[in-house]
Amino acid sequence: MVRKALNTIYTMWLREMLRFWRSKSRIIGSLATPFFFLIILGAGFSSSFQLPGGGRFDKSYLAPGLIGMAILFSSLMGGVSIIWDREFGFLKEILIAPVSRFFVALGKAVGGVTTSMIQGVLIMIIARLIGIEYTSIPGVLASIPVMFISGIGFIGLGIALASKIDSHEGFQMVMSFLTMPLVLLSGAFFPITNLPAWLRVLVYANPLTYGVEALRFCLLGSSPISIYVSIGVLLLFAFAMIGLGGKMFEKMRV
Amino acid sequence: MLYAIETEGITKKFDEITAVNNVSISVEPGELFGLLGPNGAGKTTLISMLSTMIEPSGGRARVWDFDVIKDASSVRQNIGVVFQDTTLDDRLTGRENLDLHGRLYGLDGKTRKKRINEVLSLVELSERADAIVRTYSGGMMRRLEIARGLMHHPHVLFLDEPTLGLDPQTRNHIWEYIKILNKEEGVTIVLTTHYMEEADHLCGRIAIIDHGEIVALDTPTALKSALGGDVIILEIEKPDEIARLCDIYSRNGCANIISKKGNEVFITVENGEHQIPHILNLASSAGISILSVNLRKPTLDDVFLHHTGRAIRDKEVSEVERVGYIIRSRRK
Fold first, then answer.
1. What does pTM read for this prediction?
2. Which residues form the domain of B211?
3. Among A10, A18, A88, beta carbon nearest to B332
4. Which of A228, B21, B97, B286 could lock B212 by a disulfide, CB 3.0 to 4.6 Å apart?
5. If DSSP codes are grouped into helix, strand and coil, which group holds residue B268?
């Protein structure tokens, strides 16, 4: 039973990895956005802004935000890619197999998160290469599991959405209505202390905020949100979303 | 176990439409069984229920002695399915597609490797196995799909329109694989088709399905001989005289079955060659002019026409479908 479940998860993971490997050019493309943000926004911001408390607001501050954003994009995409599987038929091959759909969804999630983590780590490396200093090696290592749990949450959300959306058009809409607000309402591009009350509520209700702040804590050594709170919220979000995604996928019609 | 597949009054309703209505069939192990019917007759819905893709709204069905609802997982382990549209991952290679399939069905590494080579050589794809599926032709994709359906040694293989949209040469190839599978590997095969030649050429028994119901079920030979002999086709000059002509023939008792379509009358008789003069005489003495006469041995087309009152043949439609299939398989 357990072996069968693990086998299903591994098979779906393997498929994602094979596909990932085949789309190397897409990966490079996906790194372009964060790269330009880092260089241009970083330079632009640091010339005019200061962080509350006096630190310089520059590319180092942006790096965890951009990693968080990349994780969000690629995880949501990973989950929503089930729409493509349905459109191009492969979903039927999976659904007809004598395996549990829940573990299929889980495998898909783990696969998608792996690709997200690879992208996150690549951005981390690029950021280091353009001169961003991380506080400690254990911090850098700890950021990887943070990427994993944030990614799992968003991919679960993506799977849940994909199980309900039945067209490309619907997908486009969800992506624009979901990703932009999530990114803008997180601490990715601005410090979340001293915000107006209405914005503060939205920012604190956004799971990505905790992902970004946890990364900021790991990589830069400080964050306005306690790392325990961040990790707690992320874990809760991950479990809730993967449970929801798995359940919705089980009920999905082809 | 008596039957590979057994259904009792299986029914599927979609809102207002009854796609499959009260179908009871039994397929013995080792049979090559055909479901023949026009597009929209309910063939795909029927095999979707048998392959656990959709749940029946009523009735019961067992596949390889497992109930399709209560024991869907066991059914799945014992069947292979080749769907009408491609279900391959076209970003991966042929071999990778087969390997993932083997893993999902719990085959260990050594078995997978061996079986991949077996099924690839059966469908003659060994040389292209490591190419990305996107670069395959429609026929190659179909062959790969058949190969994949066989990876886990299924007892029953469902083929939904296996040669839809393929050129005649590829079609012949696929027919050969299907025969080999059935004869040499003993796989029970259920295929749907709306190609008469395909059903006639391949299937041991055929169920003719129309509007969700089985209208006839027998061996191709029996179905054809039940029509009662040869078919004479008369083309009439004035279509409004058709009814009168049919009436004359049936009163004279010179035919077993009379049916009409457009401006043609189909008459089934024994010893057609000897009956033609008599039939023509009857027409000319009634003053009905006949443009042409054609005599042939009955085909499944005639069987279908006889049972449903309609012809199944739709060559132009199948061209459109062919293009449709290619577009769907290439779209990305």
1. 0.83
2. 5-219
3. A88
4. B21
5. strand
